[in-house]
Fold these 3 entries.
Entry 1:
Amino acid sequence: MNSRVSLLRIMKEKQEQIVMRISFWSGVAFALAELIMAIYSKSQSVLADTVYDSTELVVIGLTIYIIPLFYKPVTEKHPFGYAQLESIVILLKGFMFIAVMMVLIMNNIQIMLNGGNEIDHMQVSMFETILTCFSALILFILMQINKKVTSPTVDVEIYGWKIDVFSSVGVSLAFFLSSFLTHTPLAFISPYFDQIVAIVLALGMMKEPIQMIGDSFRSLMLLSPDEEEVTKIKHISSSILNNYPYDPVFYDITTTGRKMWISIYFTTRVDTMSFTELEVANRELKIALQKEYEDCFVELVPNVLANK
């Protein structure tokens, strides 16, 4: 049984490494293409994409290096393993994104105050359309691999590619429509359109890092998951424990990184308790909960004082 679990852990680690490496090298190619286009077209919107992707590459590179630590077993010295390290990396990623986006916003406001910047809108639209196609291809590949492996790091990475696809579609469409502004009463917007799109893009990108920071803080503080998840765990546990003479009185649920610890304190309806029955109940409960939460540890704890 232990050898099978170890084999599954090794396979999962390798698949996660594959996801991150595909994302990293794809990101390198995209960042180089965007940098060349940003220099050639002088587009602040393309530059915003370049800086965003380059910042992400730093974090992805660090994550690839430390992924093996996430799969190290729990020890007395590290009772939570290295799960919190993942939360720290995601927290760092969130703060880096916000800092970079704030600098880009301030830079674009400065350009607007100096009279804006005229660019070839149709050229940028075509470039973003090409990026959309390639981003969608990478996203599809990662989602196919993600069917076999799930983790907070991979989920965040796939979410990032989804943002890339939708933002590229939005920017491409915006610049395509703006190319027709020249001979309209709205022609005065043209010099500022690139900066406006860049600012909107930066503000839209901030939602993800803010959410990442909130989730990471909860994880580092060893807080329980949100109320919806707690209710779900209680429902699954109750459906199993109803078949045994155990009444749950307290749920101690801790989440850190990709791991979850669930301790269920219970009272008994009888004076004596079978340890064999307790072991069977614990195993059945663990199987049921791991269908929803793959990296979770489950234990049933008799609440002796509550029985008195």
Entry 2:
Amino acid sequence: MKCIGQDIGFGDVKTVIEDQMLKTPTAIAYEGFGARVDLDGPTSIEFEGQNYLVGEDAIESGQPVFETTSIDFLLRYAPLLAYHAIKAAGFDFDEKIHLGVGLPVSYYTPENKAALANRLNTAVVNKERLQLNTLVYPQGVGAFYDYRLTTNEKISSALIVDIGYNTVDVVHISKGRPNKSGSGMFDRAGISVIIRELSRFISDRHQIQLSNQVIKEIFISKKLSLYGKEISLEEPIRQIVERYTTHLLHSLEDGYHQQLAQAQKIVITGGVAHYLQHYIPTKMQESIVIPESPEFANARGFYKVLIASISDSENVDA
């Protein structure tokens, strides 16, 4: 029986299986005329009567890539994204899989939690039944358990700041447990803010419109390839990130001043977590923790919790 931790984000799907950590773009496009086909066979995936291109195949196809910033998108296409990522990691669905996934804090309602689990547990993709037993957690909780189970520290109070593509999830830990009343979410405040500003810069300066997924790759590489010429964007990206992180930290201090002041640890996760190190106020420096490979912290935490819960169950059964 396999355990898989998966963070199905609006920008990327992060998957943790045993010692593997894999990131695949949250990119979906309809298979259309002229779509790229590998020599080994077609790259499309059939799901609910429609053929799709997923991940890098969608980005490189030239087909329009779906907008990926709504909870409706996540609930509808989670099985397709999960299937693609698990297959990319080299695993099959020949046995029952325990899957741990997350939902952004403000979307973590009983209805959405049940809908996501049901979609994943009953899905058939490419004529394969996924055989999933899905547990759904609030986004950010995985990062807390990743830190706690890695360090074995007993933490009674903490604040988890999980910077995703579309949302920034803030999870308050009180008396060693997630506290819903002290938690929250900044919607449309994640890395997508940086991507939109970088897109405007490229459009204004170089008169070219690019998809958000392509802009995301430019943000990572800090280079724009245009008509055979490579253009460095390191300085404009630095300025954009500096403005973003300064604004985000101000928003956190305004909205979560008490939680920040009383937290033993402030755990910052997500793909841009390391950028924030340069802008952390001195008074917070000692409590700030940025885990290794911070974009995988949630998926690692979901995976570790599943392993621990199954181990406890087996010990009870024994």
Entry 3:
Amino acid sequence: MKNQIPLSEAIAGYELAAQARRLSEKTIADYQNTFNKFTLFLDDDPPLDEITPDDVRRFLAGQAVSKKTLLNYHTGLSALWTWAVEEELTGRHLLRRVERPQPEKRAIVPYTEDDVKKMLAALGKSRPYWRAGQALTVHSLPNPARNRAIILALIDTGLRASELCELRIHHLDLRNRRVRVFGKGAKERVVPFSPRTGQVLWRYLKNERHDALASEPLFITTELKALDRHVLRQTLERIGRRAEVPDVNVHRFRHTFAINYLRNGGDPWSLQLMLGHSTLDMVRSYLAIAQADLDANHRLASPVANWNI
């Protein structure tokens, strides 16, 4: 066992190791946020082996955040202690003695076909409004081609918000209709898309980005900056309000892709790869919904039930 080192030195060593492993910038930033909060909570810089499971439990219990965020804090601290054990900086994995928070299980509600068509119809013009002393009017909206490409890309690939925002033009293979994605943990995967989505992406690049370099972001803002998750969320929320579709967000596009993929005959193992999940746990939730739909459709269409034989 190496000499005792304070928590701050262990954190600094782990952050270098995380960068060397090429963890994504978002993952490293999330871990740094967790470490900063934990250090402030301790109000000290104790040796690693003097920190107790109860310290971690009190830290987690005192955070006014969602259970999903609590789980992220636990995951970040667990990554730190896993590295510390491997480096022989400590002989115990503290987080294995602290129960993992269980995040809320939110209902999976995919978009309907009508929802998506309403959103696509709401890209070019504002909702009608009255101007002082004038008739009812509408005005043109910015970036309709970009937003159409975003919606079709999301619903056709199931990408996460961060994955979509981090795409570069050279990640697209329009000829073979594939996109190279870097997901959680900087894991690379290749996701196919349909000819229709490819056509919309091609038009967007041809008409809106014809002078862009291959290394530039695929989706940019009106100010010519890379689209980030905050702007993406605001953009989709505004589209939802204009289309009168509630709760428009990236994750619902991901759910919609997954459920319709299974409804239309796709297999769960391929879906797991395309979504970038490390296990089948989430895919099983999608399977249950798709199977319920099939059962309901069978009840409606069964010859035996309908013919009363």
